[in-house]
From TrEMBL, chains A, B:
Keyword Oxidoreductase in annotation: yes
Family note: Belongs to the FAD-binding oxidoreductase/transferase type 4 family.
GO MF term list: D-lactate dehydrogenase (cytochrome) activity; D-lactate dehydrogenase (NAD+) activity; FAD binding
EC number assigned by the record: 1.1.2.4
PROSITE patterns associated with the record: FAD_PCMH (PS51387)
Biological process per Gene Ontology, one example term: lactate catabolic process
Protein name, UniProt field: D-lactate dehydrogenase (cytochrome)
Keywords, alphabetical: FAD, Flavoprotein, Oxidoreductase, Transit peptide
Enzyme class: oxidoreductase
Pfam families the UniProt entry points to: FAD-oxidase_C, FAD_binding_4
Signal peptide region: none
UniProt keyword Repeat, yes or no: no
Length: 472, 472
């Protein structure tokens, strides 16, 4: 299925590449790594896309390292690819034209925390768990949780979100300002620490979601929240996906500020029961979390339970005890492993689409029917408050027929979501895997605009070439 | 003070302009207006900037009208300026190089409302009050309230916000997708109705805040909210601006979801007392609004009153009766008129800056001291939850000395905000008036990037030339 790479940027001239690597070796010594094993680790993709390793990896330690790598690459017209934790899902860190990977894991400092302003300034390589450990003593936290313990630079670059975006927004809503290394190695500052600004074009949000194709993020200023006084978790089974979706719609319409609301379809619940030794009713399930004061959380839970009952929900249990909450969410967190266990040895391809919430029940139901028709297995979990859901498609990579049906399923899933007014990706990004769907979603004019922006900010096409924008 | 127009784009050739107007007349008949009075109305600026009328105005009725105006203007290299209600504050609708103004007031239709998805699709000329009247029966509303009854296209273009941004965000947070007419008259679709997307560069947020310099917004998809069950208003006097700011910081840190929190400094309270025949203590005042269920609102009010007391706040009164709420907010809504009444005949120049909230008390206090030192009068109102505040500077335009002191004050205000990590404008935009401050705020690299984006999307420089990006 490497055929889904629709964009094939040209490799640099061998002499130019050699010259770049020589200059990098002189500058970085043993922080320039060309071993095959390390290169392969940096082309790790959790998709069907074939890995495409870079020619070398530089371990960056400070901003000036990024600047120098970019300058050397620009001088030699060699691609440069930023790397955080390699947990992106659509081939974002692949190097289809080779080039230099900048590994940012060591740039993981918290540079400043401003609890009164609810913001902090960080380096791009810090992961969300490390950040939240650092912040905990100050009573604040960074809410975006995409599942993986991703780096914040990577999360900004893919416009990541996750389970609590329904309350706290996505990376788009939580990045205040960036510093970005541009093609000549100089640094663009995109904003200030003020919560609002109308000062010129929104450069911040142009770089958020740009997947490293317009420059390399060297510093982020992000929003924080106060740690809630009380957190309650709840679970509620439904007869149908439609009932679960309807309850979600009503909860949001009536303004219940639910912090997490996750849908597991019947097949996913079966997988969880089997993997986590649970005995949940094998019907669609909502897992919820409420944040607030003790009274607020009690009222939110009560209001939601009434809505759930109206929509065919079963017993509604909620708890504020940390150990009970953990138990309740374990099934959700283990969803990936539970799917893996359904067919040991088979590949699991994770994909996501997002639709207006009024169409979510239709989209999930039709997708379940399509899976049955195509004789494929793919449990479904959804960030149902946002209309966003994930299929975890099981496929034997050696079974050509199944792989073909799998590819067919993926195309149809995207087309279904787009026909319902949705998008080909709610949170995984375009990378290589979803370029072919952009035109149908936004039209040729939007692609023209994206190409013009890429050309304007990266005229040499050195930043992560072959991603996002399909070749014209 | 017209000297503050730092950007002087070239006027089109007379023959090209004549040719464009001829073609527009043939296409639009009496919807093309060249009378001086109408042209002057479309250069209305509520600033010190000199009005610069366009050469003609076209009254657009549908998207194809915008497309044809743009095509005719592009063919003749004539500027084209979008006009909503003319309530922008930094010369955004001025025509420094002449050209054609497209008046969008008749494109004011609600094209679709999706209450389950909490979104609607509208034409750009609809004003926020008209929109909310249309929506009321469906139990939903659009929350952004910049004060003026502005058009939604204009609000998106200036990235407007206002009193309840602290809870509901700004236009940046509430626009899901746009249709934008580009230089060849074709239409760019920037997004879908799905609440989240990671599908490519964030075109939506590039056009939000672009002040019509990159294309003309012909359609918006915006987020709505459920009308809250209960709304409570409250007022609380403080000994000092610092106490009021500290109460605000604590309220936000502890997660009280206050819907509005407005600061009036002592001088503004004096002006309101005099104009609205009130007898409020003439010390800094916070006006608040809480949205939610009856219980939620009661708890929010109680929690805030405890915080206020700790921070030196006086009596805290809250009410949910609509007539009492209206009375309480009347003083805030009449703030502009109360300032006007302080010195009949003098001009009132409205300006805004925004700082991290931890610096707000410093910034307001130093600004008050500066006014005293410069012998100037300017009541202050602030969207204190966002760190954003407005000065309403009274100046006799015929008094050159006072005008010079006023200009000095404005420069120092912006420099003070920027030195505190803030921005030269939280919600009014750059337009013509604040171009000179962008470089100090973001650096030359950000300006380079903005110029490159302008060049990429509007290579002919026909869209609202002379705005946002200072000449290189």
């Amino acid at each position: 299925m490497a055929t889904t790479n629709t964009n094939h940027p040209k490799r640099p001239e061998p002499q130019a590449l050699a010259s770049a690597i020589e200059a990098l070796a002189a500058r970085f010594g043993n922080r320039l790594i060309t071993s095959q094993a390390v290169r392969d680790q940096h082309a790790h993709t959790t998709t069907w896309l074939a890995p495409q390793p870079p020619d070398a990896v530089v371990m960056a330690q400070e901003t000036s390292d990024i600047q120098d790598v970019v300058r050397i690459c620009a001088k030699n017209s060699v691609p440069v690819i930023a790397f955080g934790t390699g947990t992106s899902l659509e081939g974002q860190v692949n190097a289809p034209a080779g080039g230099i990977c900048i590994d940012l894991r060591d740039m993981n400092q918290v540079l400043a925390v401003h609890p009164e302003d609810l913001d902090c300034v960080i380096q791009p390589g810090i992961t969300r768990k490390t950040l939240n450990e650092h912040l905990r003593d100050q009573g604040v936290f960074f809410p975006i949780d995409p599942g993986a313990d991703a780096s914040l630079g990577g999360m900004a670059s893919t416009r990541a979100s996750g389970t609590n975006a329904v309350r706290y927004g996505t990376m788009r809503d939580n990045v205040l300002a960036l510093k970005v290394v541009r093609g000549d190695g100089e640094i663009i500052t995109t904003g200030t620490r003020s919560k609002k600004s109308s000062a010129g074009y929104d450069l911040t949000h142009l770089f958020v979601g740009a997947e490293g194709t317009l420059g390399i993020i060297s510093e982020l200023t992000i929003k924080l929240r106060g740690i809630p006084e009380t957190i309650a978790a709840a679970a509620c089974s439904f007869d149908s996906v439609r009932g679960a979706c309807q309850a979600t719609i009503l909860a949001i319409q009536t303004g219940i500020p639910v912090a997490r609301i996750e849908l597991l379809n019947a097949e996913q619940v079966r997988a969880c029961n089997s993997y986590s030794k649970l005995s949940l009713p094998e019907t669609p399930l909502l897992l919820l979390e409420f944040h607030g004061s003790e009274n607020e959380v009690a009222e939110q839970s009560k209001n939601f339970s009434e809505i759930a009952k109206e929509c065919g929900g079963g017993d509604f249990t909620w708890t504020t005890r940390p150990e009970d909450r953990t138990k309740l969410w374990q099934a959700r967190h283990d969803a990936y492993w539970s799917v893996k266990a359904l067919r040991p040895g088979a590949g699991v391809v994770a994909t996501d689409v997002c639709v207006p919430i009024s169409r979510l029940a239709d989209c999930v139901t039709e997708t379940e029917e399509d899976l049955k028709r195509l004789r494929l297995q793919s449990p479904i979990v959804g960030h149902v408050g946002d209309g966003n859901f994930h299929c975890s498609l099981l496929c034997d990579v050696d079974d050509r027929d199944e792989m073909a049906r799998g590819e067919d399923f993926m195309h149809r899933l995207v087309e279904r979501a787009q026909a319902m007014g949705g998008t080909c990706t709610g949170e995984h990004g375009i990378g290589q895997g979803k370029q072919k769907y952009l035109k149908a979603e936004l039209g040729p004019e939007a692609l023209d605009a994206m190409r013009a922006l890429k050309q304007a900010l990266d005229p040499q096409n050195i930043f992560n070439p072959g991603k996002i924008v399909p070749a014209a």
